[in-house]
Amino acid sequence: MKSPAIPEHPESPKLERALGNRHIQLIAIGGAIGTGLFMGSGKTISVAGPSVLLVYLIIGFMLYFVMRAMGEILLSRKEYRNFADFTGDLLGPWAAFFTGWTYWFCWVVTAVADVIVIASVYVTHLLPNLPPWSTPVIALLVIAALIGLNLPTVRAFGETEFWFAMVKIVAILALIVVGVVLILSGFTSAQGTASFTHLWDAGGFFAKGFLGFVAAFQIATFAFVGIELVGTTAAETKDPDTNLPRAVRSIPIRILLFYIGSLVVLMSVMPWTTYDADNSPFIQVFDAAGLPAAAAVVNLVVLTSAMSSANSGIYSTSRMVYGLATQNDAPRMFARLSSRHVPRNALFLTAVVLLSSVVLLAAGLGESAGFSVVTTVSSLCFMFVWTMILASYLVYRRRRPQDHAASRFRMPLGTVMPWVVFAFFGFLIWAFTGDPDTLAGLLATPVWFVLVTVGYLVVRRTPDHRAQRAEFRRQVAEEHREAERVSVG
């Protein structure tokens, strides 16, 4: 049965399935290892102490079920290109509009923040003698480079993200190996002797109390944005029945290794009380070990991680706008593909929006001004997208029991965990009220949804949208009848 939320246009070229298994696996890893781990973990350690391990574990556990729900639905119908398609198919055309444009906004905000930090922090740390006027120019060059990497083919993006993710993996594994050697050898620095006992000997595991534990959720959530990125590659993935489940199933191992493993090592090599909240703990460990060259390399890795995040943002926003345009939720000019099957106009739209980072830098906005507010807005918008995925899954289970029964990639605990994750998201919203900066971001976020609502009220009056809603109602009625026949049978 054809999905009403995904109208077919015979004259439109199709996206090309050019991403192989190694691309999908590394894109999934890159999405699960954000810049927040390399930079934000210093602040989470300082506000929560060793209990930060539990914070990352809980967030990763909850988001794993979001990914499993997304994976089951994406594989249930091959015409789904991303999760905006299935939210529209299962919840209605309004859901595709809200999910698609909110996800676009999520990544645009994140990418603008990444470009600002790359130009004003990471590059200037590596090249401290650059004149102040060069910062906006660096931002412009970064944007041009990222568009250039995405413009040729989807495989070019896949290769770029493969190597970006590989750099992050090697850096984390190097930290873990060096850290374990330092711990087992009883390495002593100005901060003390490396030991696993640091995890509980400085005030206990919950050294900052319950409020410190809660405060870490505000920062740590941003570290996981992008974990759903693999869900935007569905239409360009070779053998999705094999590659997508493999990427999703490996998420728990990656979280345990890259997040929990690295943080255990960090807080064992040096007491957690010695870390500077404003600097990367990875760099601080190599500095303490007397390896300044390694610390400089980690600085380069952090730069690469930010480039990877911005690169992912450009890819995902272009595909989302392309999908919206094919559903008449965005101007049709963004539905055009180049001869190499790349949504070139959608890429240029993202590039134009990213130019705001150049303007902000030219106006004197650096790395710290409003950054907490920006990351909070981004985190909340990502939470909205994750919520729409779970809501779609609940409807999918109710309306299409035959699809769920036939699935080879069923979500575990599918009747319970969506509600548990919803409750957890409610807890996160409450946690965001505990800090003035994150509270400001929480209060600013509804402005976006007001704008999206206005946009939808305009497009829903078009003949195409009226036809989509009528077709959606017809299909819902038909699927309910089919579900009843299956339950009776």
TrEMBL record:
Residues 23-462 form the Amino acid permease/ SLC12A domain. It is found in: Cell membrane. Keywords: Amino-acid transport, Cell membrane, Membrane, Transmembrane, Transmembrane helix, Transport. Pfam families: AA_permease (PF00324). GO terms for biological process: amino acid transport; transmembrane transport. Signal peptide: none annotated. It is a multi-pass membrane protein. GO terms for cellular component: plasma membrane. The chain crosses the membrane at residues 47-67, 133-151, 163-185, 205-230, 251-270, 290-310, 346-365, 371-396, 416-433, 439-459. Belongs to the amino acid-polyamine-organocation (APC) superfamily. Amino acid transporter (AAT) (TC 2.A.3.1) family. This is D-serine/D-alanine/glycine transporter.
